[in-house]
Each structure stands twice: as structure tokens, then as C-alpha cells.
Design brief:
The protein is of the alpha/beta class and about 350 residues long. The chain is built from 7 helices and 17 strands. It has 3 domains: about 180 residues, Rossmann fold (3-Layer(aba) Sandwich); about 55 residues, Adenine nucleotide alpha hydrolases-like domains (SH3 type barrels); about 80 residues, Elongation Factor Tu (Ef-tu), domain 3. Helix 1 crosses helix 6 and helix 3 packs antiparallel against helix 4.
Length: about 350
């Protein structure tokens, strides 16, 4: 069987390729060109090429710039313009890595696409559906980013690192002499490598940087913001205002072009509406469903009830208030280690 491994030049994808080769798969490396739209392939492709050369596997650079700009960059900027805070890695997995890149890999003769995600895929014997499970290394578990994958995508995907921890992965890389063994981890978004979100959004989000008022919950003007795209729910730093107590962003009001601030306690909420849903375990629920819900990648799961509401919406009611429920972020539902499904946070119940 032929497997295309999405090589980034990092240690995780490098070891994923090495493990699959040892298991007897015919392995090729594929690297995405995604950003900037008019730039050369750059350091990512060069690093991936070094890994492929070390493993003695073919390597291909795949041009995904057009679909990436349309599906990821445009959506990222539009969401910020709407006062929401998106997670581009989820859309990249959904439309690019397991979408456009997988299609290109099939043209190269690959039966599967593999990545270095710390997650596992399991086929449910009872109903034949493919499920995503948490990675064995809980500190690196990336199942949150994969909730939007379809059954077709999961059927032809492999996650070789799902049962490994990061320390073991680095040891394997060192033992194999892989050039990525000592490469430091990056938490940056790939198209904003310097983490300068304001600069990027100012360059690509156009007029969405116009200033407006910073208000308290009673409507009093406390200052002026630089543009809605520079703020997110729960933010404390960079507000540029002084008060007798620490203030946090508690809401973004696009109609008034206003940033609403309040106390830390006022950032907590107990209910949200989610849309753009994808269900893995048993399809769309027809009655209220008890789950553990995660409202951002590093959030600790919290008990909640998912209540169907319309064709493509659910209400999520938490057992205890959660800090910074943020429109645009993903809410992912778990049953133990299994991903039940998830969606995009559309709105949050608020008294403002």
C-alpha cells in the first residue's frame, strides 16, 4: 500500500514517515505550498526535502496556494472582521491537508494520507463509522483539530503517532539521525510565523481596522480601540485603558463597532449556540446528549448538554460557567476518549 505523508520538515511528520516505512508501506513525502501566495517554496519545503532524503523516499511539493487563500486566509480575515476569533488549523485540516493535498496524493498513486497528528482513528464495529480518539500523549493530544473530518477523509487517513508520546518520538528521530530531531516546536500559525496577528490582519483584512469605542456594560465610553480585528473575548492586555480593577474583553459588538469590557467574572458564560456541525460517532443527535465539551484547544473539558436546535445548530449548556466562550472558535464534544462531533461557536448567551 502506498502512503503519502504530509511532510513539514518537523520531527512529528518525519517520524510518522519513518514508522510507516518500517511497517512496510510504500512511503512518499508531500509538502504543501500555502503561503505567501507569490513567494517561493521556502524553508518548509527545504526541511521536508532533507527528511525525505534521509529516509530515502520520494518527495513532492504540492501547490495549494489558491485553495488555501480561498478556504483559510479569506475565512480567517472575514471572521475577524465579523468580530469572531477563528481557528485556521481546523479549516486547514478539513479543506487543505485532508482535502486538496489528499486529492493530489491520490493523483500520485497514494492509497492513504498520513500526518504527524497526536490522535488515533478507530472504526466502530457496531455501526462501521470511523472515529477520532485522543492521542495517548494527553499533553499533545490534537483530536480537537480533527473534529470536522468526514467519514471519507478518515477512511483513508493514518495517524502513526497516536499511540506515542513526544519524548519517544524525539528519541526515534535521534536514533534514525533525522535532521528534524532537534528542531524546536512552534506554536505559531504557519502563515503568521512571527505571531504578529495585528500586522497580518491589517495587511489582509482591509478596512476592518477602523477604530471605535471601548465601552463598559452600562455603555460608558472608556477609550478607543484600534479595530475589532485586534481583540478577542477574554483579552486583558493591550486595551490601553486604566481602571480601578483589571478589565477584560467580554463581548465584541460589530453593529456599534464597539469592544465591551468588564470584570473577569463577566467573561464567564454557561450557554452557546454552535453551527457548521460535524458528527462522527452516531450522526446528528435527536435528543439532548450529555458530553464533555472543549471550547478551545488548551481548554479543560467541561460537562455539558448538547440540545438539537434546528437543522444545523445545537445549544450547548454547561454544568458550570466557562471563561471566554468565544464566537468563531470550535466547540468539540467528547465521550471519554472519542470525539463525538463538534462545530463552530456562533453566538454566546449574554446579558449585554
Amino acid at each position: 500500500m502506498k502512503v503519502a505523508v504530509a511532510l513539514s520538515g518537523g520531527v512529528d511528520s518525519a517520524v510518522a514517515a519513518a514508522l510507516l516505512r518500517e511497517e512496510g508501506y510504500q512511503v512518499i513525502g508531500v509538502t504543501m505550498r500555502v503561503w505567501p501566495p507569490d513567494g517561493p517554496a521556502g524553508g518548509v519545503a527545504a526541511g521536508a526535502r532533507r527528511v525525505a532524503d534521509r529516509l530515502d523516499i520520494p518527495h513532492h511539493v504540492v501547490d495549494c496556494r489558491g485553495v488555501f487563500a480561498e478556504r483559510v486566509i479569506a475565512h480567517f480575515c472575514r471572521e475577524y472582521d465579523l468580530g469572531r476569533t477563528p481557528n485556521p488549523c481546523i479549516r486547514c485540516n478539513q479543506f487543505i491537508k485532508f482535502g486538496a493535498l489528499r486529492e493530489r496524493a491520490r493523483e500520485l498513486g497514494a492509497d492513504f494520507i498520513a500526518t504527524g497528528h497526536y490522535a488515533r482513528i478507530e472504526k466502530d464495529a457496531a455501526n462501521g463509522r470511523y472515529l477520532v480518539k485522543k492521542g495517548s500523549d494527553r499533553s499533545k493530544d490534537q483530536s480537537y483539530f480533527l473534529y470536522a473530518l468526514t467519514q471519507e477523509q478518515l477512511k483513508y487517513s493514518l495517524f502513526p503517532l497516536g499511540g506515542f508520546n513526544k519524548e519517544r518520538v524525539r528519541r526515534i528521530a535521534e536514533e534514525l539521525g533525522l535532521p528534524a530531531a532537534s528542531r524546536p516546536e512552534s506554536r505559531d500559525i504557519c502563515f503568521i510565523p512571527d505571531s504578529d496577528y495585528p500586522r497580518f490582519l491589517k495587511d489582509y483584512a482591509g478596512g476592518a481596522t477602523r477604530p471605535g469605542p471601548i465601552l463598559d456594560r452600562r455603555g460608558n465610553v472608556l477609550g478607543e480601540h484600534k479595530g475589532l480585528i485586534f481583540y478577542t473575548i477574554g483579552q486583558r492586555k493591550g486595551l490601553g485603558i486604566s481602571a480601578g480593577e483589571p478589565l477584560y474583553v467580554v463581548a465584541i459588538d460589530r453593529e456599534r463597532s464597539a469592544v465591551i469590557v468588564g470584570s473577569r467574572e463577566e467573561t464567564y458564560g454557561s450557554e452557546l449556540t454552535a453551527s457548521e456541525l460535524n458528527w462522527m460517532a452516531n450522526g446528528k443527535p435527536r435528543r439532548p446528549l450529555r458530553v464533555k465539551a472543549r471550547i478551545r484547544y488548551l481548554h479543560r473539558e467541561a460537562g455539558a448538554t448538547v440540545i438539537p436546535s434546528g437543522e444545523d445548530r445545537v445549544q450547548v449548556v454547561f454544568e458550570e460557567p466557562q471563561m471566554a466562550l468565544t464566537p468563531g472558535q470550535a466547540v468539540v464534544f467528547y465521550d471519554g476518549e472519542r470525539v463525538v462531533g463538534g462545530g463552530s461557536i456562533e453566538r454566546v448567551r449574554s446579558e449585554i
